[in-house]
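User: Hello, can you help with two protein structures?

Assistant: Certainly.
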Amino acid sequence: MTYSYTAKGRGAALATTLLGAAMAVSAQAETADIVAQSTEIVEQGYAGLYEAPPSSGPAAVEGKNIWYISCGQAFVLCAQQAAGFEEAAEHLGWTVSIQDGKATPSIASDIIRQAVAAKVDGIAISAFDCPGIKSALLQAKADGVPVVSVQSIDCSADVFGAEEPLFTASVNMLGSTDARDFYYRFGELRAHYVIAKTGGEGKIVSIAETSQQVQQSNHQGFMDIIGKCEGCEVAESTFNFGQVPSPATQIWQSALLQNPDAVAVEYGIDALMELGLQTAVRQTGRRDLIVGGGEGFPNNFEQIRSGTQTFSIGLPFKWFGWAVADTMNRVQAGEAPEDMPSQGTGFMFVDAEHNLPASGEMLEPPVDFRAAYLSIWNG
């Protein structure tokens, strides 16, 4: 069965197949049994909802000096992506410098300027949107230094006024170079899990981050699917990253206290559990709540084992790093950004009965993406 996916609210439609299962219920299915639909998607998610990496492309363009700007090495997801890029770059024959952007646009901008001054062959950057680093990107463009982004939004996006694009190329994941589309699907999947496990009945506390465009899309994906569930009620609890851990912890505690009849708590950022949300959940004294989010870190997997968290939707962070490397290699080989293929990637559901990796380990997707890239780069 194939479902069609539409990125709502931005006037943009994106349809793609994730191994025969796309992430949203079609308009025709709106009157069908949403619980049955969600249950089927969850079963597919246990097996893994992935698209394969590209099957062809340029051989390794060796001898390049590339700087990679991490979104913040203190964060597991950023460090894992950087490690994946470094792994891939070794196979490409590049000299790589991993730079820590520390989740701060001004720091990332300074690193871009330093890279331009060092006359690097390319800059890769993760999770910094164009407006926050615009002046540095303009300098890189003026000096002919290509900048490849992943999980970032370019200045050409409608939400930023549809200005001139400043990233040389953005990684295409699941058929889109707009990071909002990936996160929208991420939100859809959480809704499907909650619907399937609650039988489509009850109140859900939905914790939504409001300061980042990708997180707004993440929440919108959840809301668009949950809106198809007639028996579901949503109590939204909003916060922004600047409020973490305080007063965000108090915001979450209040949301749970004000909704004692909730059957589930959902959020799009697993790291929140370590930043106060775990405390808020435990203070309810309830062990029957469905609690879950996505990203998939070792600490969250331990919380699933202990019963504090119910589920996570794991992302293949090292694969993201290899995807950035392949996109940069295509830029170095002269491939036009508009011709670059999807790098694949995808999602996998993890709960106490499915896909828990060994203690302390990250989730590894059941796709040998490394071999796929090496078959291209080795010619």
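That covers the first. Now for the second protein you mentioned:
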Amino acid sequence: MGRPLTVLVDAGPWLPVPPQGYGGIEAVLATLVPELRRLGIRVVLATVGASRLEVDEQITTFPEPRFADIAAPYNRVMGVAAAHVDAVLRELRGRDGGDGGVDGGVDLVHSHLEAWGLVAYADAGVPVLHTLHWDLGKHPELYGRFDGRGRVVVNGVSAAQLAGAPAALRRHALGHVHLATPLADRPGPDVGVEDHLVVLARLTPGKGQDVAARLAHRTGRRVVLAGPVGPHHSEAALADALATDPRAREHPDVAWFCDRVAPLLDGDRVRWVGALGGTARDRLVASASAQLCPLRWEEPGGTGIVESLALGTPVVGYARGCLPELLDEPGTGLLVARDDEDTLADLLAAGADRTLDRDACRAAARRRFTPAVMARGYRDLYDEVLARTAPRATGAA
């Protein structure tokens, strides 16, 4: 190529990169992008103006994140992703002059924007790798009939996620790349192991925090819930919204939390501590006996799982989604059949989580879930995408 590979990474308009506190996809990109740049890849990041990640170039439509709008009625939020994608397309067309980006400097788009990113860039003249981060049972009319027309391919974040994808989407898949965490590259905090269990995730029905709270009361174990409720990152912020905004309960996660989780909080056996980041999050997880994952959905990627392993904390929960493949090494986890709350309660009451191997957890993370491992996986996928879409030489036989 004669110059560094340039990849436009589309993070979407919802949260900054890196995020402050909770941020799933944005946290993944904050981990991935620096490693891509260490591999010599130029990164153009499409994000919000509040992003502070060091990149080669940045494309911005919205100065501030729009996550608070994400669960608003469709007619209020429909233009947000559209405006973001329009800005990216104008940038691509302005650079390439219609020649596929070779002269304009963007060689490949790596999209992480749900639904929109799968279809918006198909005719931009640049090859597209679209990473699937979410439940592929959604959007059946899109995923079940998708045709990338030789320009768009996809990857998953686990083998289990792709195994459950519609056939049309699987035909476009190059494989999977597991998520990673910078915690796998450094020693964890120097804290003692306590008896509490932790659930580190956005509070939403699929993550099962209401099940975790019930298990605490059934077994006598303490459970700490850490994560945001909708756009609200603290108890004070949620209380203020409920007191001042008559539409606050329109957010489905807020309504579910108020109805199903809040009645089980007692400040002792079950606590919600809001969305934690940095040292506070690491100390909470590292001091937990285990992370509890009574999932109601097929978890596709498991960021919280790999973070937990990197901190030496094993995982206990239901065998759903990616958990069996992330916890397939002895001593790193304890999984029961999906929705078998009684068996999970018996194991927790007996303290079975205390028999798991914290050193094995850390070793697995260092081997499988470092940022460098993830970046090399994506570099290999970029090479494959570009090889598939390169013009073929023609001439006389």
